[in-house]
Amino acid sequence: MKLSVIGCGYLGAVHAAAMASIGHEVVGIDVDPDKLEALSRGEAPFFEPDLQRLLADGVASGRLRFTHDLEEARGAKFHFVAVGTPQRKDGSAADLTYVNAAIDGLLSILSDGDIVVGKSTTPVGTAQELTPRVESVGGTLVWNPEFLREGWAVKDTIEPDRIVVGVPSRADGEPTAAGHLAVASLREVYAPAVSTGTPFIVTDLATAELVKVAANAFLATKISFINAMSEIAEVTGADVTTLADAIGHDTRIGRRFLGAGIGFGGGCLPKDIRAFAARAEELGRGEAVGFLREVDEINMRRRDRAVAIVEEALGGSVFEKQITVLGAAFKPHSDDVRDSPALDVATRLHGLGAKVKVTDPAAIENARRVSPQLTYVADRDEALEGADLVLLVTEWDEYRREMHPLQVADLVSASIIVDGRNCLDAREWRDAGFVYYGMGRP
Ligand code: UGA
Q1: Span from the CA of 149 to the centroid of ligand 1 (angstroms)
Q2: Which of 56, 65, 192, 269 is the most exposed place for a label (fewest CB within 10 A)?
Q3: 423 a catalytic residue
Q4: 99, 220, 268, 384: which one is catalytic?
């Protein structure tokens, strides 16, 4: 099938490459010439396992190409809208400029019967509002949210755990005739996943948009819940990691996303919960998700707490102290530093007068762009040399599994380690002579 993908950021580039890999003919449209050039060479413009291979294969096969020229999307039956919906500069709501621009652009090239598939994360109600514009030129607008995780994006796109499709519906919730047609066509687009029994959930437009933000809100709430428990553990001497293990055995609760530490960041969870709260306010139901403000605040307090632990560990002040920060990315297997708790904590320590050296296996280039005032060292061991304190803030395997306390002891000036992700074996580090601090652990 012929598909276009409008917007080749994280979501769009992966979607385009994944769709080409399952046999579709795909054109990706973007406005950024550097990104287009890299993608057209079959190179991933960001760190994402497997994407490079998919892009290279897709471009070489002739089934995948990238251009700035929207005209080249003409003739495709499906147009996936995968542009960003960042937080507005003047508040917490989502900025829909790019979504509106993508739809406006598509109006000039759509043919009768084309299907526009929204994948961007939008405030509930947006799809319904956009519908008359798309229908005015004979198209159908459906909403098909994306649940990919950075670091697992290719796998999550090709083998999703569910496919959700919101389609135009009648007052009783049943899809309209155009909605039924769109569902049948999308089943063909996603045939490999559909054939393996992946749940395929057909719903109205509003539910599809809500599924996306509800999922992210739930995940953020789960993380903040365990981080709230950290705060209680800290004043009682309890250990939040053991607590998480113990409650996680209850399958109704589950252990995943109960990793207490410096909290969540990235391009999705923080902005999505804020946009959700803002949208609920607009709908007059702000109180229904009032807890999301708490979730956000608990999350931000973990960064304060990490700074406080470092200060305490260094005797009250970080001024002129040499601190090695392990990690800059918002999570491992990613070079993304958007709203990264790791980089935020490093930057705050620098602001307090510490001499901060940051290392990361993938994110240094991006981190330098955002926080140029910090010192970056690519080699982990070189970064550790002479440290008065080591602060682990992104749980890369390079630090979690491949860093041995006795070797680190030989490099640093003082054996103090703060484990901002509770991912190290405290006993092993203490046995090697380190003073070990976790988050919400004795
Ligand atoms: C998140 C969702 O997990 C995806 O399902 C969703 O599609 C995506 O947002 C999106 O909306 O595009 P992602 O931002 O890639 O994916 O990252 P996550 O793996 O969810 O991690 C988010 C943050 O939570 C990271 O900073 C991570 O370190 C933190 N986290 C995660 C914790 O602090 N504790 C945990 O137990 C788990």
Answers
A1: 7
A2: 192
A3: no
A4: 268
Write out pLDDT tens, residues 265-297: 999 999 999 999 999 999 999 999 999 999 999
Distance (angstroms) between ligand 1 centre and the Cα of 264 equals: 7
User: For residue 148, which atom of ligand 1 is closest to its CA?
Assistant: 7
Task: Output b/e per residue, 164-177; b: 16+ Cβ within 10 A.
Answer: bbbbbbeeeeebee
Q: What pLDDT digit, counting tens, does each position of 22-72 carry?
A: 999 999 999 999 999 999 999 999 999 899 999 999 999 999 999 999 999
CA of 261 from ligand 1 middle (Å) equals 13
Which pLDDT does position 209 carry in this prediction? 98
Residue 304 forms part of a structural domain: yes
In the reported structure, the alpha carbon of residue 60 is separated from the centroid of ligand 1 by a whole-number distance in angstroms of: 32
The half-sphere exposure of 360 on its side-chain side, counting CA atoms within 13 A, is: 31
Q: What is the largest CA-CA distance in the chain?
A: 71
DSSP for 230-289 reads HHHHHHHT--HHHHHHHHHTSTTT-STT---SS---SSSHHHHHHHHHHHHHHTT-GGGG
Q: Is residue 392 domain-shared with residue 430, that is, in the same domain? A: yes
What would the two tokens of residue 400 be?
A: 């979690």
Same domain, yes or no, for 193 and 216? no
pLDDT at position 256, please? Answer: 98
Mean pLDDT over residues 93-111, rounded? 97
* Residues 6 or more apart in contact with residue 231 via CB below 8 angstroms: 298, 301, 305, 440
* Minimal-distance CA residue to ligand 1 atom 28: 331
Which residues does ligand 1 sit against, CB inside 6 Å? 121, 146-150, 216, 219, 223, 257-259, 261, 263-266, 268-269, 272, 330-331
| Domain assignment of residue 152, yes or no | yes
Report yes or no: 85 and 122 within 8 Å, Cβ to Cβ. Answer: yes
Question: Tens of pLDDT along 170-227?
Answer: 999 899 999 999 999 999 999 999 999 999 999 999 999 999 999 999 999 999 999 9
Average pLDDT score over the chain: 97
Per-residue pLDDT, 49: 85
**Which among 223, 326, 337, 400 is the best mutation to test ligand 1's pocket, defined by most ligand atoms within 8 Å of the CB?**
223
Q: How far apart are the CA of 219 and the centre of ligand 1, in A?
A: 8
- 234-259 pLDDT per residue, tens: 999 999 999 999 999 999 999 999 99
**In which domain, by residue range, is 265 found?**
210-442
Asked which of 198, 222, 251 is the last residue of a domain, the reply is 198
List the CATH number of the domain containing 123: 3.40.50.720
